[in-house]
Design goal:
Elements (H helix, E strand, L loop, with lengths): L5 E4 H8 L16 E4 L4 H26 L6 H14 L8 H46 L8 H15 L3 H43 L6 H19 L3 H27 L3 E4 L2 E5 L14 E5 L2 E4 L5 H11 L21 H15 L3 E2 L3 H8 L47 E7 L22 E5 L15 E5 L7 E2 L3 E3 L8 E3 L1
Parallel strand pairs: 8-11
Antiparallel strand pairs: 1-2, 3-6, 4-5, 5-13, 6-12, 7-12, 8-9, 9-10
Length: 500
């Protein structure tokens, strides 16, 4: 009965039944038993195929457990031993009932092997993700003095115990939880650190100007309180909340910077009540361009008490990135800014208007002269009353700090001498009916020469009279020309002149 029997290598037979499965890393080789087969029954072929799959599962199991370093755990050893035992089943020694029972048992073990391989794969992936997320979090955290979350350290330790005890399903859940936790914490920590950095930049910007400004106590207190509160939230791992509070601190410090910048550059503005006056030279000692004398009606406005200083202009220039004007080596600070063109002065007024919310600009000639005539300037009695040539110790030397001389009846200083002052108006050789107060926002640069008023440290007392006019090219930079500002107070900003 055995004349047709052949001796087959078991694995060769199984290879004919099913193609070979891919195999990963292999550390344990199980020799395939040889069996004598004669007209194998369907149950024997089924069991043979299942045992081939057992071989594949065993190789996968060995490769996986070694790769993820759990090959010596109780679960790995127990499952490997069971697969090896299954692999040693002798098909030809089993009766039909035993074959059927073996098939059921092997199928159950193969399902268990498949589930365990999937379980360990998920566990390994979850742990790897958690390790990566924690490492990234700890790396960023190392830049700060904040310690790692104590409670999460305890959970981490508990999870390591779980996997040592073979509770990989529970460990997988814990690793997944820790992965999400550290991933979210990293996002929150980065947001908190970025917000803190921006807040510190705002704080530094404020500290750079803080000594030059006054007031703002409540806003300073608010910014400091926000920063302290945000730091406490950060130490308690409430990163996203701390980021929002750091943003509030930054907002307050930037507002302090904004208000501080405005305060530094904003001159003290004095009210000039509107009225009617005679504009031009009524003494007969003036030049032709001071005629004809004519009545001008002006609404009320405010005028800067002094000429704009280097301190005020330099603050603006640094904020907008303009080069600082030359001070001729005389000094900066409270001296009137010089060597600035009409356009420079105009742009300063626009910038300060935007920052302060006020409507600031260069004065018209009529506004300037109206305010200057409150000085009752007497060229014959000019000693120590202004900085000009022939004014005693101030004789033809250089500019001096603003406010050194007595104010006029309106409280305005240096309306005579020190430096000429740019006006908004184009220069004309003689007065004519016109709008002497320019419209708000108008560039007023449609001419090559602008009127300047007031005389300078270089000029004689006679040239400092209120009606005296001179001109300068709008792009001229002179160490004898500065400016002051006016503020519009009412909607009717155009003063109409009528020639007498």
């Amino acid at each position: 009965m055995f004349k047709h029997s052949l001796v087959f290598i078991f694995m060769g037979l199984l290879a004919a039944c099913d193609g070979p499965a891919p195999v990963g890393k292999v550390d344990i080789q199980i020799p395939a038993p040889q069996v004598l087969v004669e007209d194998l029954s369907a149950q024997q072929l089924q069991l043979a195929k299942l045992l081939k799959t057992v071989d594949e599962r065993l190789l996968q199991w060995n490769a996986l457990t070694i790769d993820i370093h759990v090959e010596q755990t109780p679960l790995a050893i127990e499952h490997r031993d069971e697969l090896v035992r299954l692999r040693q089943i002798q098909i030809m020694d089993l009766e039909k009932d035993e074959l059927l029972s073996a098939i059921v048992h092997v199928e159950a073990q193969l399902n268990s092997a498949k589930e365990n391989i999937l379980m360990l794969s998920e566990w390994s992936q979850a742990k790897s993700q958690a390790l990566t997320a924690r490492a990234a979090f700890v790396s960023v955290l190392a830049q700060e003095t904040t310690a790692l979350h104590t409670r999460k350290n305890e959970v981490w330790a508990q999870t390591l115990v779980m996997e040592k005890e073979g509770a990989f399903v529970q460990a997988t859940k814990q690793w997944s939880v820790l992965h999400v936790f550290f991933k979210e914490q990293l996002v929150g920590l980065n947001a908190s650190l970025k917000a803190k950095s921006l807040a510190l930049e705002g704080q530094q910007a404020w500290q750079e100007i803080a000594k030059r400004v006054m007031g703002f106590k409540s806003l300073i207190k608010s910014a400091n309180a926000y920063f302290t509160q945000a730091g406490e939230r950060q130490e308690n791992y409430q990163y996203l909340m701390s980021a929002k509070i750091f943003e509030s601190a930054k907002r307050d410090w930037l507002e302090l910077v904004h208000q501080g910048v405005v305060q530094i550059s904003m001159p003290n503005m004095l009210l000039v009540k509107g009225g009617v006056f005679e504009m031009g030279d009524s003494t007969g000692q003036g030049d032709k361009d001071e005629l004809p004398v004519h009545s001008v009606t002006l609404p009320s406005y405010s005028m800067s008490q002094t000429e704009i200083t280097f301190a005020q202009y330099d603050n603006y220039a640094k904020n907008v990135g303009k080069p600082l004007p030359n001070d001729e080596g005389w000094g900066r600070g409270q001296r009137p800014v010089i060597n600035i063109s009409w356009q420079d002065a105009h742009e300063f007024a626009l910038w300060l208007s935007e920052k302060s919310g006020k409507t600031l600009r260069l004065p018209s000639e009529s506004q300037w002269e109206y305010a200057a005539k409150a000085s009752n300037w007497d060229a014959q009695n000019a000693g120590n009353k202004a900085n000009c040539e022939g004014c005693y110790k101030w004789d033809n030397k250089e500019s001096v700090a603003v406010g050194q001389f007595p104010a006029n009846a309106l409280g305005l200083h240096d309306m005579q001498g020190n430096v000429w002052e740019w006006t908004a108006d184009c220069y004309t050789d003689a007065y004519a009916p016109q709008e002497s107060a320019p419209q708000e926002g108008a560039l007023q640069a449609s001419c090559s020469n602008k009127a300047v008023r007031g005389g300078s440290w270089y000029d004689l007392p006679s040239q400092l009279r209120s009606s005296n006019r001179s001109k300068a090219a709008i792009n001229k930079h002179s160490n004898r020309i500065g400016f002051r500002l006016v503020e519009t107070l009412i909607s009717n900003r155009i003063a109409r002149e009528s020639v007498n």
